[in-house]
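User: I'm writing a short report section on ligand binding and want a predicted complex to refer to. Could you take this sequence and zinc ion and write out the structure as tokens? A short remark afterwards would be nice.
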Amino acid sequence: MPTFSQILYETPEPNIARIVLNRPQARNAQDTRMLYELNDALDFAAQDDEIKVIIVAANGPHFSSGHDLREKAPRETQKEFRTVTTWGGFDGDGAEAQFAREQEIYLGFCERWRNLPKPTMVEVQGRVIAGGVMLVWPFDIVIASEDATFQDNTVAMGICGAEFFNHPYELGVRKAKEMLFTSDEVSAADALRLGAVNHVVPREELESFTLAMARRIAAKNLFSLKITKMAVNAAEDNAGRASTNQTAFALHHMLHTHFKLTSGLPIDPEFMASFASRKA
Ligand code: ZN
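Assistant: Sure. The structure tokens for the complex follow:
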């Protein structure tokens, strides 16, 4: 079992793993360490043949506020972990280092997690912002509390959407455009209506409701569950889901490069100035 500092790894019942984001003081902002620990924990649960269902959850009032824009020395932290893609070039010049890093820890991780063979579930409360949706969309079953909201405000930062660009497949094309163009939040009720979440429950029932469903899934044959997941995932992949993500990722990096060329920052400097003036 790897050791973790930003997440918790629990086995609440036989055959069920529960991985909890545990930076509530930072609204579970994703720093490099948390993403690698989450990836390690998901691998650990996937490789344990006793585990049949994996739940991802988050401590605190909000599920995740997205990438940690205040992180110090992310490249140094990344070097402490074994990379999971074969990109390399993490210290490269020009556009290379950021492309390599985001290919690894954002798009790369999310594709890995989405394709983990076992059934995965995620329980979501409070605000889910920008990169936060990256920690929701890859998982198979989404249970949201009534107060959950989903927002990708990266267009306000000058960027065309978070690195894992599954929004059109989760919300439908029209709502995905509205969410991105306006930077508005999508309510749990709207997400349910659009099929982006499976169930909406009162906050106090979020954990127990999710665990009860996990228990019913865990009663099934694991090999059959794995094959069933492959079959359903093929429906989206045969409709171009993965290549849509790769196209959007390339466009996302064109905009990072645009802002670096024009201002030296990877996002709109006006957004960064307003972000920097906010309290931590
Ligand atoms: Zn990016």
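A remark for your report: The pocket of zinc ion is lined by residues 102, 163, 252, 256 (CB under 6 Å). The beta strands are 7-13, 16-21, 53-58, 120-124, 127-129, 141-145, 149-151, 186-187, 199-201.
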